[in-house]
Amino acid sequence: MAAGPPASGTGPVHVGRPGELPPLCSQVRLFLTLVCAAVAAVLYILLCSHSPVQRCCSAPALRDSPATSGVRSFQGYSRVPDGKTLERALCRQCAIVSSSGQMLGSQLGQAIDGQECVLRMNHAPTAGYEQDVGARSTIRVVSHTSVPLLLGNQPYFFQQSQETLYFIWGPAKKMNREKMGSTYQALVKVMEKYPQLQIYTLTEEKMTYCDDVFQNETGKNRMKSGSFLSTGWFTMILAMELCEQICVFGMVSDSYCREKNHSSVPYHYFEKGRLDECRMYLMHEQARRAGHRFITEKAIFSRWAKRRNIVFNHPSWAGRRNI
Fold first, then answer.
1. Are the C-beta atoms of residues 222 and 214 closer than 8 Å to each other?
2. Would the pTM count as exceeding 0.85?
3. Residue 42 belongs to some domain of the structure
4. Residue 111 sits in which domain range?
5. CATH number for position 235
6. What total number of domains does the chain contain?
7. Of the candidates 132, 137, 135, which has an alpha carbon nearest to the alpha carbon of residue 119?
8. What tens digit of pLDDT does each residue of 181-217 get?
9. Count of H helices and E strands in the chain?
10. Are 82 and 249 in contact, with CB atoms under 8 Å apart?
11. What pLDDT, on the 0 to 100 scale, is given for residue 224?
12. Measuring CA to CA, which of 47, 63, 66, 247 is 20 to 30 A from 31?
């Protein structure tokens, strides 16, 4: 029986090759594919934006990366007691762990320990705080004023942590090798007791360089303005030399303490009940002499973050191009 004409209101019938879909079906399938892709992209963005750790800090580094395999020499860091210049490979990913009370309850220990290199400051402990700050210490940057605190707990800092590299900074009168400054003498004695330790001091040239960086960024002479650089300053400069990516944990922005609803936390996570963090920052920022310019330094770090691969976590905040 011959086929009749199409029913009223229908268009011409498409007859294609076997297995070929009509144009309308192909268009519907393409539309549904695009919709699914769009939904997946939106879900990915929403999930990642609520992650407590930003993307560059979420996965462990590839320790055998070609970019990090070559040993390099870093001028300005002199080994105790032989004076040899620091030589090591770059770290692909670094965690700088703040000593701030912001770290309490953060549950970031695993994310921190997942970085290739972990940098800590002064005598900040890990024992008892592992869930929040992690357990590993690749590098510890220490002020000359904190050296006695390390000496008072040698089994913890030196006997158990022999894989840690120590970087000690301080004024020439304390750190001088030839004249055997008091801090340098103490470090030599520690090396005699623990010969496997790796302790480096910042040279006078490196200390001057760090002062010059501060003046270039602020327009103020550090000494004439009554400013003392913080251990965080030296840690950030060291990290920018050693690390390809820097993830900072527990450091607030320069504007944080001006926010009405900012949280009140201890200045140090391991010294509960002591002075509030923001009060300490504001007190030092306003000091006419011998003040750490914590807030100014954080504003500078914010600017550096736009030029370097630096990410701030807990609290998370973005760097800015201008202070």
1. yes
2. no
3. no
4. 70-313
5. 3.90.1480.20
6. 1
7. 137
8. 999 999 999 999 999 999 999 999 999 999 999 999 9
9. 11, 11
10. no
11. 86
12. 47
